[in-house]
Hints:
- Its main location: membrane.
- The protein is mainly alpha-helical.
- The chain has helices at 2-6, 14-25, 28-31, 34-41, 45-69, 76-83, 86-116, 124-138, 143-174, 178-181, 189-192, 200-214, 220-223, 231-240, 242-260, 272-279, 283-317, 335-345, 347-354, 359-388, 391-395, 406-424, 426-466.
Amino acid sequence: MQAQATGLKRGLSARHIRFMALGSAIGTGLFYGSASAIQMAGPAVLLAYLIGGAAVYMVMRALGEMAVHNPVAGSFGQYASTYLGPMAGFILGWTYAFEMVIVGLADVTAFGIYMGFWFPEVARWIWVLGIVFVIGGLNLCTVKVFGEMEFWMSLLKVGAIIAMILGGFGIMAFGIGSSTTGHVTGISNLWTQGGFMPNGVGGLIASFAVVMFAFGGIEIIGVTAGEAKDPQHVLPKAINAVPLRILLFYVLTLFVLMSIFPWQQIGSNGSPFVQIFDNLGISSAATILNIVVISSAISAINSDIFGAGRMLFGLSRQGHAPKAFGQLSRHGVPWMTVVVMSAALLGGVLLNYLIPENVFVLIASIATFATVWVWLMILLTQVAMRRSMSAEQVAQLKFPVPFWPYAPMAAIVFMAFIFGVLGYFPDTQAALIVGCVWIALLVLAYRLWVKPVAGQAARVMGESTVR
């Protein structure tokens, strides 16, 4: 009912939602950012992905509980407004949009790097400019077009990763590539190259900044609630698949990756997947994998524009964003938000032109702050919702959070710990500063513009009621 009331169309089927969830878990953070995490933690990065994945699963269950209970456009932005107050909803909604812009900048940057594997002579910013226009145009079509694109892109990524895992085990079993690299392949690489935790606990902790970035965007499952067919059945199935995806697509993939090649030589000069197979002498596999990581980046950019657009649409309906963001095209798409997001991603063109070598690490760390802030707010909103409900209402929840209240509280503590990680290490301190300034600006904006307008509207409504 909510979707029809707002003009959005429920065009996303169970197939679309399921593969959007898969696609959100397999993106730039795995194909490109994993190289940085491996350099920080060594093989112990597997522990970081397991721990971070468990915390993210609790975020998804908290979001799922609220989205199944009340599936609306704008999702957790509206929930925060309801249970934590209008200012919390305003900050959460705009920070999520900010997160999608920053993650989108990382994704378009990664796309330019991947294209450089084939066309090193072409400037990276040219590829970034082209992909922004293409994806922006696709997002102006019906939501079903978006869902279909995500389905096929995600299917390609899933198939490629499964093939890579099977191929990796084959390489280890038959020793393919050992003669060309001068190194022995096998799981012994996980502990013979300086130990399982070569950089100590400090290296493991430092890797969390990149690891949590890798999971960023997975909360888009909740944003689809306003356009999903039968969200009460579709959303729980998609969310419950998160643990298996983390084990398969992150832990098992990186386990294979570090087994077939020493972790010290997994650099950040392009995707580590492409780099490894190229170094193993399997040039055709490197080409195929580059196609896969390019499609992954395109899929991620597509999801970034979609997620931010729907959140801004929800904010506009609450009076927390310009009314223009609530305008729908004849296809039921909030077209203005798509245009604004595409324009914001054009900033990636400028960044890749000015600082092509350092742009990814900077963007990734800022995105980590925004991502973890959004997750923390989702967890706090779910706690507030539970506390506002009676025992009878809680008993009627169709998708309750497991191990309440201990698991959500542990996840909240972990998110606070990640902020401490960002502030402790010099490479990520700038991200924490940028994030804090962003939150402060949002608080100021709310108090100067949103709150006075809301108060005036309330007074006008009260006067008309008296008359």
